[in-house]
């Protein structure tokens, strides 16, 4: 029995569970009773793997980045989730969940999105399966991720602005849950991360586990060994990290490094580094670590990266943190921007701002010459061009002086 | 016997309860609202504990909660406000909030405070039944607190019967499958639902909530269950009219 898998009651250690209003109980119970049977069925596996291969473009490459490796003095591999159809790892999950939704006979799909990657991935599979799609997105994120909003609309989704709270991912999730409460029978809530009530964290982790499944044979092929020394992934809710860690959680020789967004700095009051700033509590239906005040009011987080701008963390990650199995690091806005420019210059790859947080800790680690590191490059940077252009202008102005 | 069960014994029908958001529209309106509602003839009150992320509430209550939090409301302020008027309030008080508030405040400390200010019933819509059974039932009992569970049109008969067994105040019957919010009418499907619940012959008092906003909806609901809770409609009213004419609002509904 794995120490890090969900238990029969839906918990990872003390974290997880299903803290939901009675109105949602039948929906969550229906999913809980059926998800494993569906996922493990031959029909599901066949269709899921077929779509991942022929529609998404998997397996994604595992690329030994020569210039980055040289700079940091280690063997640094990039797991190229940025090359997936729609531009990030999110689609692994949406392909799986849309098949589950179809199996349950649901006709109306709702989703929350931060950076818009999950929204695009959901709108994409809804177009593919001809299902109604409604995406909730914070008003602030709608502004800073305009290209993804346009893509969702072109794909036929209705994008609804969340205007409460900090108008970001947390608030989009609240609106999605409200909508689900209002339309419990016909609606499937397609959650984009390893958050929410059980069984969502486990279901999403299983659907993202394809990342580490491929890493194993790709590493074996390229290095002769299935295990790297270190895996690095960014964590907002934590779905790309869950996928990259999944098949390595019980191999304790593999160091698992989760990188949170420090925003303007851990102690600046403008941060999203949940493990450093949070305490145990309940958010969006699961018990986990979250940023809150002394009265349990959830704190509004901040990060330059819309995908990491979340005051909680999935219960699996809370457990990895509390048990010490995971190493939690963080990177500021500026460190992430610098890392994005560095990867672009060294390897000709423009990463998403989220993934840049994972890259940004390389300089903070004590690396050994033979160390094999896999960084999960969870998404590409097209959606962040406006932010990158601003940074480029700043850099040009500095050079000019 | 708890105050609320005493009430149910004396008045089995047309029970009228009102939900209000503490600290709304102004921080110190809490006590005025409680005294005003009691004077207007409301039978028991739901004291809303404003929360940053109230996922079981609709936009009206969420907005009022957000205003109240900006006003500076928190659990300590609310407990102090209730303490202040403890001797003047005779009707039963119910606290309604979210599980995270209780966990973070310290569940035992929260229970202690509730008991000392005269709250004897709790509604925590996102507390799982299993947590209640395993952990909180005993703790609540120690401080004389009873817990209220919600049921909806989607709740199975088996689960309703289990809730009935565990209930020692009342069952909160969610009157529509929508979230709280003034809607204006009670549909035939809702009446069928009330009648189905009634046919189970449960031991608990049934109080309907969500979507009751007028004399019409109140009367209709009271033909089928023991009473009703008015929430969003009242919050909207005090948001627009302030807290000095509560009597007029209540009289319009209960006559």
Automatic annotation (TrEMBL), chain A:
Top EC group: lyase
Enzyme Commission number: 4.2.1.20
N6-(pyridoxal phosphate)lysine: residues carrying this PTM: 90
Short name of one Pfam family: PALP
A GO CC term assigned to this protein in UniProt: cytoplasm
InterPro entries: Trp_synth_b_CS (IPR006653), Trp_synth_beta (IPR006654), Trp_synth_beta/beta-like (IPR023026), TrpB-like_PALP (IPR001926), TrpB-like_PALP_sf (IPR036052)
GO molecular function: tryptophan synthase activity
Cofactor(s) required, per the database record: pyridoxal 5'-phosphate
Domain Tryptophan synthase beta chain-like PALP: 57-379
Catalytic activity, reaction form: (1S,2R)-1-C-(indol-3-yl)glycerol 3-phosphate + L-serine = D-glyceraldehyde 3-phosphate + L-tryptophan + H2O
Pathway the protein takes part in: Amino-acid biosynthesis; L-tryptophan biosynthesis; L-tryptophan from chorismate: step 5/5
Gene3D superfamilies (alphabetical): 3.40.50.1100
Lineage top rank: taxon: Bacteria
Annotated keywords: Amino-acid biosynthesis, Aromatic amino acid biosynthesis, Lyase, Pyridoxal phosphate, Tryptophan biosynthesis
PROSITE patterns: TRP_SYNTHASE_BETA
Subunit structure of this chain's protein: Tetramer of two alpha and two beta chains.
Known function: The beta subunit is responsible for the synthesis of L-tryptophan from indole and L-serine.
Family in the record: Belongs to the TrpB family.
UniProt protein name: Tryptophan synthase beta chain
Organism: Wenyingzhuangia marina
Phylogenetic classification of the source organism: Bacteria, Pseudomonadati, Bacteroidota, Flavobacteriia, Flavobacteriales
TrEMBL record, chain B:
Reactions it catalyzes: (1S,2R)-1-C-(indol-3-yl)glycerol 3-phosphate + L-serine = D-glyceraldehyde 3-phosphate + L-tryptophan + H2O
Active site, per annotation: 46, 57
GO CC annotation: cytosol
Domain of life, per lineage: Bacteria
Keywords: Amino-acid biosynthesis, Aromatic amino acid biosynthesis, Lyase, Tryptophan biosynthesis
Coiled coil segments of this chain: none
Listed pathway(s): Amino-acid biosynthesis; L-tryptophan biosynthesis; L-tryptophan from chorismate: step 5/5
Catalytic activity, EC: 4.2.1.20
Function: The alpha subunit is responsible for the aldol cleavage of indoleglycerol phosphate to indole and glyceraldehyde 3-phosphate.
NCBIfam families registered for this protein in UniProt: trpA
Xref: HAMAP family: Trp_synth_alpha
UniProt similarity note: Belongs to the TrpA family.
The protein's name: Tryptophan synthase alpha chain
Lineage per the UniProt record: Bacteria, Pseudomonadati, Bacteroidota, Flavobacteriia, Flavobacteriales
